[in-house]
Amino acid sequence: MSGDPLWSIFVNACLINNFVLAYFLGICPFLGVSGKMETATRMGGAVMFVMLVSSICAYGINALLTAIDAPYLRLISFIAVIASTVQLVEMFIKKVSPGLFRALGIFLPLITTNCAILGLALFQTNKGYGFLQCVVYALGAGAGFTVALVLMAGLREKLDLATVPDVVKGTALTLMLAGFLSVAFMGFAGLGG
Amino acid sequence: MVAKGTQHTGTDEFLKGLWKENPVFVQVLGMCPVLAVSNTARNALAMGLATLFVLLMSNIVVSALRRFIPKQVRIATFILVIATFVTVVEYVIQAISLDLHKALGAFISLIVVNCLILGRAEAFASKNGIGRSILDALGMGVGFAFALLCLGAVREILGAGSLFGVELFHDGFQDWVMMILPSGGFFTLAGWVLLFNRLKQRQARAETALKEAA
Fold first, then answer.
1. Strand pairing partners for B167?
2. Domain spans, chain A
3. Ramachandran region of residue B162, left (φ > 0), alpha (ψ -120 to 50) or beta?
4. Does A51 touch chain B if contact means CB atoms closer than 8 Å?
5. What confidence tens digit (pLDDT) does each residue in A157-166 have?
6. Which residue of B has its CA nearest to A178?
């Protein structure tokens, strides 16, 4: 078990090693749904929630697989469990809170193929975090994802009003913006160690 | 299997992945590994080959089983097939080179969630015969590996002054460290996408000019 204090894990996952801007995880939704501020916040919330649930599940699976000595099944069981968890969460939310379900909409099923979720499960296993550390790590990663997504959406909404050359429009412009954001986030390096 | 109203020959199936529908530069699929492991040409090439292998094998299996997989659970089945081959690749890389395994880290496992592979299984292999699926996988996989190599080469040359670990410049060369860092990945990819857009635009313009002249 690693001995990092909880606050350092949170700051690390959220700012210093931001999942989107430093690890390049979850780039697809980052480029896809960062067009509008409103959808960006919702997507961020959904990702954070699923991250928390799947992180707890991954902790359980890992303990079980270590107990029966079958580490080669890890990847397969992680992805299977995450996919089914997302489905379960979706059904649960639909039943309990239809309002929240409508707000999250299409984003919940899309999260299954979000590499940030699987990446989180793999990283926490590699780092050997304990249960509480896993929960904090998931919260930090989710918060970091949301921050990156919301910042990006803000920038893109402003840029809609600017005139840019035809060739640059679309993916290329978004990628350049992401690059600048990434440079900005490098400033957090050295914070918390 | 009878071709369904398409006149695609085998070569077309292979070539479309290389240029017209290049998974990285045109479709912008599977971005996570593209940006994360392209900091040196060697890592990029290894990642490209690993993805090519997984794509090929999963396309073959999905295509062979396409009549037996119930429609409702197809996505889950595809993911399980892909995850199996990714586990194989991970252990193979670990056996061949421990350094490489360390450099690529969790990103080998993350091939599972590469949308390119699931996308090809869903959009192509589950509807076409084995032969065509193999060609499609080879085209897309080579296109993906090529794109990764392009990025990796640019980033390594600018950021470390070397290519595949071989020093290219004299001592006076000042490394452009940012290209190795995460932000360099975004900028390099943006540059390549720009180049592709520009080429496509010129091609489209030339075609319309040709039509008007005729």
1. B162
2. 6-186
3. beta
4. no
5. 888 888 888 7
6. B186
